[in-house]
Amino acid sequence: MKSKRYFNTTGFCRPEKHYMLDPLRNQSVIFDLIEKEQYFTIHAPRQTGKTTLLHELAHRLNKEGNYISVVFSVESAGYRSITEETANFKIINSLYQACELFLHKKLWAPKPVITKKYSLQDYLNKWATTQTKPIILLLDEIDSLYDDVLVSVLRQLRNGFQGRPKHFPSTIALVGLRDVREYKTKVRPSEASLGSGSPFNIKAESILLGTWTKEEITELYSQHTKDTGQVFSKEMINRIYELTGGQPWLVNAVANEIVEKILKSDFTKKITLAHAEEAKENLIKRRDTHLDSLLDKLKEPRVKNIVSAIINGDSLVYDNFNDDLLYVMDLGIIRKEKYDIIFSNEIYREIIPRVLNFSMQENIREEGTTSWYIKPNGKLDMDKLLKAFQAFYRENSEMWLEKFDYKEAGPHLLLMAFLQRVINGGGRINREMAVGTGRTDLLIEFNGDKFVLELKLKRLPSARQKGLDQISRYLDTLGMTKGYLILFEIKPSSIIPWETRVKWEDVSYQNKNITIVEM
């Protein structure tokens, strides 16, 4: 039976075409703010449903008939070389064009005339004055604006604020990837604040759109079951929740990958856990637009600091004043779980190291040939693999890490690249990384065997002892007794020569057999 609806992975959702949750289902705060004629911000990472929410909100307000509401994007003015005058005109033009999508013609904003100079404030004032109902303006992509243009737009909104609701929009929502506190660093990085006369002090509330719960994923997937009879079991939903962390685009993308690509829309076929793993791998390998825009952010210095710390397990002070941390959280790349700061979900945890070390993987030629490390019985020879890596690391690491963007996390990423090359031939790597643990744990599964590796930088003389305690605890949680502790020396070879730093030692520790591999 063919379904009329499908899982959407591009653009905003429409109820007649897509499986979707009501974006306004738990947003009574928005209606409350509109009633109180407040200005507020909505922020969320890319593809978490912001545009869907805005369109739904504007259409609902217009349908109920108490307000005039329009959603429009200011992105057309989002480039550095633009003058304030040109920006004003472009923004006004975007607003005018959006009226057609949301409003009856008699409610439209006035048609802009190219020859006339406009300020956004005057334009909104003229529009509001001619209308009998309050205007609710939903202004999207606000953080695409730069410097003086951003300040100018926010100042005009603040100046008009006093005239609401008769002479200015009664509510304006600024919508973007980040909270308003982020705009000030974008405007004048050298100043912590724009002072009390700043354009930001009119904001009543900041609303962050969160990820979905298991219950919400269940509700979304049950729409597919209702249409087609094809079931996502409870264990499937649990697994998809682990993979996606409830990130809306990923939740849709995994389901779409399974239903349409893997099972080719044959709704009689049963969805299994193996399909979830296959979908995960496909999305990572294909790097769809969502994942690409996420990975683009990894080049930013603020993101790099945090991502490096997670890969190494280095400490970060978690506080609300750590703007970098909040920024990377706002982007949806990381989240806080109890005391740990980790990548937001399993797919990000997997794809981020793989993308960062991709060029390394490509350059590991002969040494990374899977067949070299396979025993006659098809099992992986981990000792041989790690000894080969030691030799490879000694020969290449200094030259490679020098050119590498993520220097801090370089040793860890280089080993992961080496392993990935070999493991791709028939196994998988599960990574455990969190800020402040001082280590990275890898669980490698290959042809029925499991190998535990713990990676640690030798920042202090106590690193070896700490590493032994940590891997022993990690093995306990897995119910295993054999593991590898990999210690990377961070001092240059001019201080500690390779002859003394490359070591291999088997020790018995707390009833475990641990191989210590140093380099």
Automatic annotation (TrEMBL):
InterPro entries (UniProt xref): P-loop_NTPase
Any Pfam family the entry gives: AAA_35
Parts of the chain that traverse the membrane: none
Gene3D superfamilies cross-referenced by the UniProt entry: P-loop containing nucleotide triphosphate hydrolases
PANTHER family: ATPASE DOMAIN-CONTAINING PROTEIN (PTHR34301:SF8), DNA-BINDING PROTEIN-RELATED (PTHR34301)
Protein name: ATPase domain protein, prokaryote domain protein
Organism: Candidatus Omnitrophus magneticus
